[in-house]
């Protein structure tokens, strides 16, 4: 019997992206630059996170025509974002046939009570997380891939670092716990018991976990890989830098060779200016995207 | 015996696990120097475009191509099939590759496969998979779907699958590579 949309093919698709860089692109031209640089996938969205911050207003799913144009222009997978809880936007992206849907806090949330029941879709989903409970709730809803939330559009890596370290510390704690403690841990994390048990048995998450939200340089990418990320999402960091093609290529190289410091030094030379960053402490609570959809 | 796993991008840890399960020492291969002293290599699933670019950047494409021509055993899955069967890449197996041949991720699937000469079926996991529309001697099809698409093939010391044995717990393809081809 032949089956599509199974948990294995949805999670497996993310496993094939490991060690790679997924780049935000706003048009066909940028998608081609990303592909030529060696991106494993592109995220098609009309405005990268820093532009969403600058523009204000409501950020929604991108124009299907723009997403389809990018799908036609590159052979690597194409992802696109929907608002948290917006099942209609998700069904529309499924109908277009994008390869992965990001239920993303970068867009303005559509539902502040519920995320999408992602188990219902043939297309896999990626979701953001800041700690293990959030990660396991998203997996419980059917996410096939995770990423740190970081603080998108800031070019500031500190939040992604916090989130990756927190998740990994909590995984170590669960893995080392006595089986008798797992139900209480599940209560404290507000996470499904069976998934806490899985993390305990596997010693890791049952899905791939990428770093996202603040990666701006090859060194940032290498930092996150050394902290245990399976791969890297770069949003504004590439196309808001002085030399996008060079930045993109350098970040791909640093992600593939995260401990080859001489090589990372070499690709970091003369890159020009990275995106201008934002100090997280200057953001008001309303401006923090990571607090959306917990 | 030491088997390398090309570790530039993709399902590397999954292949390392399979090689280890066959009782063989695995080695992550990231540079030209890592290719020295290997008894064989597996090329994991991943994005073939990305792996190809990284092979070129690391100046590994030509040395690896030379090794393949000299009879070095290589097993490639999915992206590995694309790299091994394209004449302009590693040119290790004579056949015609159709990339993303089954469609996009929505069309990714799992199914039971009949492998030539094997008594029990193999569970195939296909993710944006390529296939071979035909193979030429000395390449030989090992798994052919009902519609004629070839999804596993061998040419002497080169083994390719469209699907991902590394995503299953079934080590038969890796064992076949290690025990029969090296």
From TrEMBL, chain A:
Subunit structure: In the presence of PdxT, forms a dodecamer of heterodimers.
Annotated PdxS/SNZ N-terminal domain residues: 7-212
EC number: 4.3.3.6
Binding site for D-ribose 5-phosphate: 24, 153, 214, 235-236
Keywords of this entry: Lyase, Pyridoxal phosphate, Schiff base
Record protein name field: Pyridoxal 5'-phosphate synthase subunit PdxS
Residues forming the catalytic site: 81 (schiff-base intermediate with d-ribose 5-phosphate)
GO MF annotations in UniProt: lyase activity
Job of this protein: Catalyzes the formation of pyridoxal 5'-phosphate from ribose 5-phosphate (RBP), glyceraldehyde 3-phosphate (G3P) and ammonia. The ammonia is provided by the PdxT subunit. Can also use ribulose 5-phosphate and dihydroxyacetone phosphate as substrates, resulting from enzyme-catalyzed isomerization of RBP and G3P, respectively.
Reactions that this protein is recorded to catalyse: aldehydo-D-ribose 5-phosphate + D-glyceraldehyde 3-phosphate + L-glutamine = pyridoxal 5'-phosphate + L-glutamate + phosphate + 3 H2O + H(+)
Protein family membership: Belongs to the PdxS/SNZ family.
């Amino acid at each position: 019997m032949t089956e599509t949309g199974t948990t294995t093919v949805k999670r497996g698709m993310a496993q094939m992206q490991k060690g790679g860089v997924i780049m935000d692109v706003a048009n066909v031209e940028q998608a081609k630059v990303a592909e030529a640089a060696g991106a494993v996938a592109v995220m098609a969205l009309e405005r990268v996170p820093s532009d969403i911050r600058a523009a204000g207003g409501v950020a929604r799913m991108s124009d299907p025509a723009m997403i389809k144009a990018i799908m036609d222009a590159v052979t690597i997978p194409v992802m696109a974002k929907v608002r948290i809880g917006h099942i209609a936007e998700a069904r529309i992206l499924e109908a277009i046939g994008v390869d992965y849907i990001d239920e993303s806090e970068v867009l303005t949330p559509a539902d502040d009570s519920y995320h999408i029941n992602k188990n219902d879709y043939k297309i896999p989903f990626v979701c953001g997380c800041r700690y293990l409970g959030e990660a396991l709730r998203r997996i419980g809803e059917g996410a096939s891939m995770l990423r740190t939330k970081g603080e998108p559009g800031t070019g500031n890596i500190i939040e992604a670092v916090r989130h990756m370290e927190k998740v990994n510390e909590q995984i170590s704690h669960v893995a080392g716990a006595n089986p008798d403690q797992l139900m209480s841990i599940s209560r404290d994390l507000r996470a499904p018991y069976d998934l806490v048990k899985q993390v305990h048995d596997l010693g890791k998450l049952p899905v791939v976990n990428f770093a996202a939200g603040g990666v701006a340089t090859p060194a940032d990418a290498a930092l996150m890989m050394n902290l245990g990320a399976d791969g890297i999402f770069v949003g504004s960091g590439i196309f808001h830098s002085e030399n996008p093609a060079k930045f993109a290529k350098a970040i791909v190289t640093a992600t593939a060779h995260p401990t080859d410091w001489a090589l990372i030094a070499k690709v970091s030379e003369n890159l020009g200016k990275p995106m201008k960053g934002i100090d997280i402490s200057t953001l008001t609570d309303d401006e923090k995207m990571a607090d959306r959809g917990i | 015996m030491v088997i390398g796993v090309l570790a530039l991008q993709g399902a590397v840890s999954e292949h390392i696990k399979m090689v280890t399960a066959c009782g063989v020492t695995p080695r992550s291969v990231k540079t030209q120097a890592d290719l020295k002293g290997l008894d064989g290599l597996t090329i994991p699933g991943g994005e073939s475009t990305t792996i190809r670019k990284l092979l070129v950047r690391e100046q590994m494409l030509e040395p690896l191509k030379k090794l393949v021509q000299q009879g070095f055993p290589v097993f490639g899955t999915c992206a590995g099939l694309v790299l091994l069967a394209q004449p302009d890449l590693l040119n290790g197996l004579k056949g015609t590759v159709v990339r993303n041949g089954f469609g996009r991720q929505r069309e990714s699937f799992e199914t039971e496969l009949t492998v030539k000469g094997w008594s029990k079926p193999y569970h195939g996991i296909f993710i944006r998979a390529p296939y071979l529309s035909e193979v030429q001697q000395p390449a030989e099809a090992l798994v052919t779907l009902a519609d004629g698409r070839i999804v596993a093939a061998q040419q002497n010391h080169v083994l390719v699958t469209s699907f991902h044995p590394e995503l299953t717990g079934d080590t038969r393809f890796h064992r076949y590579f290690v025990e029969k081809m090296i």
